[in-house]
């Protein structure tokens, strides 16, 4: 059980409520985005066009695969199950999107500070930062990972009134 402890552990308490809210909003965003790309024909066409123009190999397969990953891992993230793994998958998707599509929206010949400003205006930059936060911190106080971790380690805690001599 201890080898899964790091994967499922997460801070709790009121100070970590914003972490849970970020996870839920981020997960629901990716779930909705992926769901629309899987089930709405117009969005399927846009996704295929984007992936084809980005030069990603096997565009028909990758369009469905990426949209399905956004849907599944977005939902898992929203409920706080396999949070770190889900955030890692969404980090990979966001990083590929940043390098294949997003960076092309930044005008050329900018000074470093202006370029950095443009970089942080791109939505993928925010997604990457949120995913990194969730990979490091976990699901926060309201997530299935935390609940599972607590159940797996119930026997590890000393009971009140029982001495540990």
What do you see in this structure?
The protein is built from eight helices and no strands. It starts with a helix and ends in a 13-residue tail after the last helix. The model has no long low-confidence stretch (mean pLDDT 91). The protein is globular. α2 (17-39) packs across α3 (41-53), α3 packs across α4 and α4 crosses α5. The chain has 165 residues and is an all-alpha fold. The chain has one domain (2-152).
List the helices and strands and how they pair.
Layout: H1 2-8, H2 17-39, H3 41-53, H4 59-79, H5 83-100, H6 112-121, H7 123-137, H8 144-152
Q: Keywords for this structure?
A:
globular; 165 residues; mainly alpha
- End-to-end C-alpha gap: 25 Å
Strand content is under 5%
Q: Helices and strands, in N-to-C order? A: HHHHHHHH
Mean pLDDT: 91
Q: How many individual domains?
A: 1
Q: Specify the overall morphology.
A: globular
- Quaternary organisation of the protein chains: single chain
Class from helix and strand fractions: mainly alpha
User: What is the makeup of the main sheet?
Assistant: none
Proportion of helical residues: over 70%
**Computed Rg:** 19 Å
Low-confidence stretches: none
Count of DSSP H/I helices: 8
The tally of beta strands, per DSSP, is 0
Short description:
With 165 residues, the protein is an all-alpha fold. It has one domain (2-152).
